[in-house]
Amino acid sequence: MKGKFEPLILAFCCNYCPSCSADLAKSAKLQYPPNIRIIKVPCIGAVGIIHILKALENGADGVCLMGCLEGKCEYSTGNFRAMKRVQYVKKLLGKLSIEKERLELYNFAAAEAYRFCKLAREVTETVRTLGPTPLKINNSKI
Amino acid sequence: MIVGQQKDFDEIKKMISAYSRILVLGCQTCVAISFAGGMREVEILASMIRMDRKMAGQDVEIKEEAILRQCDFEFLDSVKDLVAGCDVVLSLACGIGVQAMAERYPDKVILPGLNTTFMGVTEEMGIWSERCAGCGDCILDKTGGLCPIARCSKGLLNGPCGGSVNGKCEISPDVDCVWQLIIDRLKALNQLEKLEEIFPIKDWSVSGHGGTRKIVREDLTA
Amino acid sequence: MFSNFGSILVVGGGIAGIQACLDLADSGYFVYLVEKSAFIGGKTAQLDKTYPVNDCPFCIRYNEHMECASHTNIEVLTLSEVKDIKGGSGNFKATIIQRPRYVDIDRCTTCGLCAEKCPAKVNDEFNEGMGKRKAIYLEYSRAVPNGYVIDKKNCLHFTEEGCNICREACNEKAIDFDKKEKDITLNIGSIILATGFDSVIPSYYDYDKFSNVITSMEFERIMSLHGPCGGHLIRPSDRKEPKNIAWLQCIGSRDIQHNYCSTVCCMYAVKQASLAKQSNRMLNAAIFFMDMRVCGKDYERYYNRAKDEDDVRFVRSRVHNVFPVDGTNDLLIRYADEQGKISEEIYDMVVLSLGLEPSQDAVKLARGLGIGLDKNNFIETSSFAPVNTSVPGIYACGAFNAPKDISESITEASAAACASLLNMAVSKAALYDESLEKTWQKPVSTGLVVGGGVTGMVSCLCLADQGYKAYLIEKTDKLGGHALKLRKTFKGEDVTSYVKELIDKVENHPLIDVCFNSEVKHTDGYAGNFSTRIAISSSTETKKIKHGITIMSTGADFFRTSEYLYGKNPRVLSWFQLDKMLDEKPNEIKKANAWVFILCVGSREPERPYCSKICCSNAIQNALELKKVNPDMEIYVLYRDMRTYGLREGLYTDAQDKGIVFIRYKLDGKPEVEEDRDGRLKVRIFDNILGEDLIIQTDFITLQTAIVPGNHDNLAKLFNLPVNQDGFFKEAHQKFRPVEFFAKGIYLAGLVHSPKPIDEAISQAQAAAAKAVTVLSKEYITTSNEVASIDLKLCVACLTCARICPFGAVIITGMGEPYVEPAKCRGCGICVVECPTRAMVLEHFKNDSILTKCKALLEPFMGYVQ
Amino acid sequence: MNSNEWVFDLAISSNDLDPAFKFEIANVPGNELVKNCFTCGACIAACPVSNACSQFDPRKIIHMVILGLKDQVLSSDNIWCCSHCESCRFSCPQGIHISEVMDALQSKAVSDNYAAAFEKFGTAPCKAACPAHISIQGFIGMITEGRYRDGLKLIKEEMPFPCICGRICYHPCENKCNRNKVDEPVAIEYLKRFLADRDLAGDINYVPETEEKKEDKVAVIGAGPAGLSAAYFLAIKGYPVTVFDRLPVAGGMMAVGIPAYRLPRDILRKEIKTIIDMGVEIKTGITLGKEITIESLRNEGCKAFFIAVGRHVSRGLNVKGENLEGIIHGIDFLKDVSLKGKVSIGERAIVIGGGNVAIDVALTALRSGAKEVRIVCLEGRDEMHAWKYEIKNALDEGIVIINNWGPGCFIGKNGHVKRIEFKRCIAVLDANGRFNPQYDETELMTVEADTVLLSIGQACDMSFVKGVPDLEVSPMGPVVKDPFTLETNIPGIFVGGDASYGPRSVVKAVASGKDAAISIDRYLKGEDIKAGRSQKWNSIEFEPQNVKLADRQQMQCLSIDRRKSSFEEIDSGFSEQQARLEAKRCLRICGTQGQGLGVRDQGMTNL
């Protein structure tokens, strides 16, 4: 039985600005797709390559990292490191023939509830267009 | 420190394609510090292999482990059971570690996950550069503590060559001309006269060119 | 809970007021914050971004706003105004009128139903009148205090009797129309005025007539993501994206009515133009200016970047008017370039860079209090006590003292907090939130101040006068630093005697221990508990000091140039030498017929791309002194941009009045200095206006050489402190945390931060002391809940953690083992992810737990069919 | 570069500079700020001359003054280019008054023999013709730029009543307008009115800034245009001024002479209010010689006086039957209408007189209920003193004008006038050009009328002299010793306005008041009152070429019917668009006297 494809997206979300935005979106009762699952982390710089890979390995159709705006990191350079790391993992994904678009880093200010929702929708749409993670498709063949 | 660099994933993939039970074994010393083969890298590589196999619809069983040093036989025993339970060991140690493993577990296929690149230093987080070529006949006393053999593209002993431009090597403007550095350093040390000394022909016999090297310390041997 | 006696009143809930409140409250004092509008945040909250880092000010300050509103030591009185203040320092009695909000903040859940239903639409002043809001409104979604307010003037309940729609809509029953205005009487010890500024309303440039002529603040709102245009750069008339925008500078600044420079407009115009360019590369952005006054830390780089990378066009010309283009909403600008050629250009939009004026209400209040104001209505202050007004016990900070930007306002706010504390012998207010987890350790109530210049001495005195012991480490054998060479401030105060007095106070203060000829050798520890070893050159012994905080005030140095025959001809002087000559050899000055000042020697050049900030004013100041000694002397000032910012503009016009001649030169046409056979000096310069070379025969030349960072590499290394590209120390945040380092408990002040005049250095010194006191005054050293720890069995001492930690919290012990200092670690987890051997652990953020969470979250949706 | 090379190059050496030059110029009054130039260039872009011809660079001239390039500046043709249009008046952030600088340089060039005194102080014909010397091109330029407030400020630098003069001025400027040579003159008066109306319609009216308050009090006798102007300019200088008037209202002839349909009273009140807002005190209903005397004012601390009592007494005809009922003096009639509102008169009115007042009287009579109004005057139609457009207005409204007749006698019945007998006037002036009408006593005309309004001239009511016993007077009024300074035989007392020179226009009175203010200011400061006062304004001729034709904007007027039935204002003023279009017609560069700069050939500039 096949239903409409609903992507599962794991969002690592820095406890500062992006979480503020996410909470704000919630408190303002703004709608964003349920496809986004949020893991709060102390700093986006604390999300390692392995975390991203594990998320994908465990079946996430997309992964996004949400950090503070450039220069705005509570811990000085965490978001900058995250940016570099995402670039690196994108290279790894290339090796695995997984679409790089499944991984993205976004930078947020503290009060960007609307943008948060907008991006959540965008990300969901992007991943929806990409289809289910290649890990799942091929796995179901077995 | 020995600096390593993980092999291209495609190459690793090809190497291990025939196996479905794999031990990814890291080494927590030099290559961990150079971010090529420590536990962190083991986890990442393992995850990638799993994903790759999953996508290909193949089953795989991967064990992840890292030991303190793969170049010492004593440490290798701790993974005896793990090794026994797999078809192949993908070693993320330097070439020494891979060989040590192969020597210790002669029945097992031991594959290298790294290219062992050079002996060098961490310039800063994420940047390593070569410092020593292991020539067996150190001349750093004459060159202000900068090694022309490892760091001059031509290995010149009486540099710099004509390719030194603005303190950079002709092979790339990113590479310092070590001879320029040597001169600067000696100048600062007020030892420029050392350069007037012509280097005698170097004894390459003690370098790797003289065959496999071996050192025996009688006072230490049993 | 607390005694009102000895509490402090802060007037104005803008950025400065909030900062002053927080510093005071964190030091244990009770503060009343009186804000006339319904929300705190002031003008800063309206800004889209701040220079020079392009931060969103609201995002960064949100926590401070919240903290201010919820701090147990702060009572925020919004919709309030000071009606009357009686009494004197230490015992003021203030009457505050508080207008009703009509919405019970504690009940309001900001659900917004009321505003949705409210029938009264009014122009949204937060958006500068662009866009509408309702009569019941929240300024913006996270405005603080976070509750709606009814704007009585426009509310139909009051204007047309009886509209109760919002009250009926409110589920929480939070609306009460019967609330009445009330008077609140407060007993207070000190008052801080932080009333900010009003923008000068342009009476010309057809601002009111053309919709596409907008003010700088309107532009901020247009660019703001939360503004009326959602962050899309569009012009008001047709909401189309503009292709050309012109910024006109000095609107309401630097004219006969405003004999001062508003200081901030150049930078905000540069910021706006480059952000606009970044949002649309095809945009033609032009800034019309007289002098580009970008004289703050990293400002010059920002300006250069706008010019070189963002392709913002800079046109040196004052535009006298904007013309309509018939049949369109476009605007025509006619201007003359430096050669006098008149050009006309058409722009889609024109932004007027409005100047700053003291807020009118505040001027009235200050007059009522008998506070001395200058001719432009700014508060009269001394350079040596930059936040003290003429009335004891009343302090002022921010743009009411002089036009200034956010970071300086914040600095002054902290300085005012410091000054007002010194004024008061008061009981501290109730203490801290008990729920915080603490390590039960008292901070060492001692400060270490490195550098015995004016800044260091002021910091020391601030600490010592509040009862904390202070060590002052000075590497030479006397106090005073470069200030010993200065004669006067731009306001004419005598620096020499001030410094003398200061040294006297410091050396005789029982709580200050001055260590001469000494140097920091080693340091260790964390905020509240540092331990530092000092080497004293006269002895082989080292001295170990335990201290709770550290202030870096090692100052800067001046550039020793080889240009312009400096060092070759004795009559080519540095500015210090001129200062000395004024003191010692007035007769030689009397004999001189001509004198040339060359500005920007070594500053604003490719190898030193920053402005030294003080040279322009200093040159003019000295030129005026020369004129005093010898009124017949011809003085030429050769400059690149005349950066007499703020109230220093008065110096410039004064100098013009006295007949001092100003000639501009360009970087690629520097003056040439020549000595002829008879030893006479000649300066050759190309005069842009004349279009010809000018040869000036002169008796003396003074070079305004750059301020360069002092040699503090060693300190930077020891304390693990960041240094910027120019070699000055890098503070935690350029805009909002100007005197702090990222590492807690270490502060910076004075020229070690960037070149600055003595008054700004002193306010930084006071600000740093105020920050220091927030740590020293704590009962316990508080630490973060989550601290990284290390499994030493796994650790191979690869140093990654020590290298990567943004706070220098990880150190490698002599045993080659890493150690995490709990007071420094802020639990970010950056080291954890990078640890190659997985030895690093963050208790609440373990790898395993996150991976488990990851898995759990990736369980398929409920009801999601795969 | 070595010094040898420097010797031969063409650079300016500081040895050639005259450091004192900038001070010389700055010491000329009005030039104090010249040293404060920021070299921002705002003046150049605002200058119509610079726009027409690039050599004229006021900033460069000022910079050269500051540098001390005296020879170069004074011998340059450029300093003669400024047309004193004042377009740049408010452009300079430092407030440098550039035309004053140019004046100072021109004077210096002449006095130091750098130039012949050719057309010194030459300016545009319109500005020269205006008695108040308003910078007409300047304010018109500001209209084209939309700087209405600045435009008004510019006008108000020279006169306090733009709203009034924008309605009732006889605008000699327009007669001289160079645009006449192309098509029609620029509607200067209406443009002025546009600016002033616009300001009065706004929320905050423009009130000129006043200097710091001074001690010495000044009393002004007469709250007419001359007196109020003097008060206005003295207030700007910071003097405390009190204005006395014996009428119950302020404004003099503006309030009681000019009919409301030409000058609505609220306009008048508003412009007077501006003067009050500047700190001037106006006391009405007080007569010099009755309630107050110069002596009493001196005792109250007044240090200087300006007497501008005007001419409020009608001349008599000296004709038989002149005292019959129904024969009213025109200005008394106007005064009554102004003060009381409606005055009832008969149905058939005859107005005797050919001046502007006669026309005002006739039109007012029409509005006061007369069914038939005729004007009878000595002069032929073309000789009438009334302005052409006034005559046209009268004719439009159905007034009959009968020319070349002089009153012979009035014939009454029961003491009330019934008929007038006129005799043919064959010449108004005698061979010497003096007023001396010649009649053909044989040709007579009898006209029936129940009201006769005499408007044949005004005299000064000399009763005020009681308050100034020592003042030298003539039968014509107080004697002015110097027409430029308005001094009298008593130091500190100045006279001006209609009282001193005969009935003239409001703008002339303003000029007189302004002169008095300058004199009083200098008198009180102890400065030389006479210095530089005889300055004549030369209009510089200009032959516009290649000018695009453009019609003069027409003012919207009330219909003839509405006009006759009310005192509503006839002209409704220019719309903003009209004003801008009309302003664009101004050639802007009239008055430039640069030689060989091509300015004159430029014609219309691109402004």
Give a description of the structure.
The complex is a heterotetramer of chains A (142), B (222), C (866) and D (607). With 142 residues, chain A is of the alpha/beta class. Chain A contains five helices and four strands, in the order βαβαβαβαα. In chain B, β6 and β7 form a beta hairpin. Chain B folds into two domains: 2-118, Response regulator (Rossmann fold, 3-Layer(aba) Sandwich), CATH 3.40.50.2300; 134-210, no CATH class. The mean pLDDT of chain B is 90. Chain B is an alpha/beta fold. Chain B has helices at 9-16, 30-33, 39-56, 73-76, 80-84, 95-104, 148-151, 178-189; strands at 2-6, 21-27, 61-67, 88-91, 109-112, 114-124, 127-132. Helix content of chain B is 29%, strand content 20%. Chain B has eight helices and seven strands. Chain D is α/β, with parallel strands linked by helices. In chain D, strands 5-4-3-6-19 form a five-stranded parallel β-sheet. Chain D has a five-stranded parallel β-sheet with strand order 8-15-9-10-11. Chain D is globular, with a radius of gyration of 27 Å. The two termini of chain D are 46 Å apart. The model of chain D is unreliable at 596-607 (pLDDT under 50). The chains are: A alpha/beta (142), B alpha/beta (222), C alpha/beta (866), D alpha/beta (607). At the C-D interface, β17, α16, β34, β35 and β36 of C face β1, α3 and α5 of D. β36 (692-698) of chain C pairs parallel with β1 of chain D, so a sheet runs across the interface.
Record keyword descriptors for this entry.
heterotetramer; A: Rossmann fold; four-stranded parallel beta sheet; 4 strands; globular; D: 607 residues; alpha/beta; Fumarate Reductase Iron-sulfur Protein, Chain B, domain 2; FAD/NAD(P)-binding domain; 4 domains; five-stranded parallel beta sheet; 25 helices
Short summary:
Chain B folds into two domains: 2-118, Response regulator (Rossmann fold), CATH 3.40.50; 134-210, no CATH class. By secondary structure, chain B is of the alpha/beta class. Helices cover 29% and strands 20% of the residues of chain B.
Intertermini distance of chain D: 46 Å
Largest sheet of chain D: 5 strands, parallel
- CATH topology value of the largest domain in chain B: Rossmann fold
Query: Quick one: biggest sheet of chain B?
Result: 4 strands, parallel
Name the poorly predicted regions of chain D.
596-607
Rounded mean pLDDT of chain B is 90
Strand residues, percent of chain B: 15-25%
Chain-averaged pLDDT of chain D: 86
Q: Shape of chain D, please?
A: globular
Number of DSSP strand runs of chain D: 20
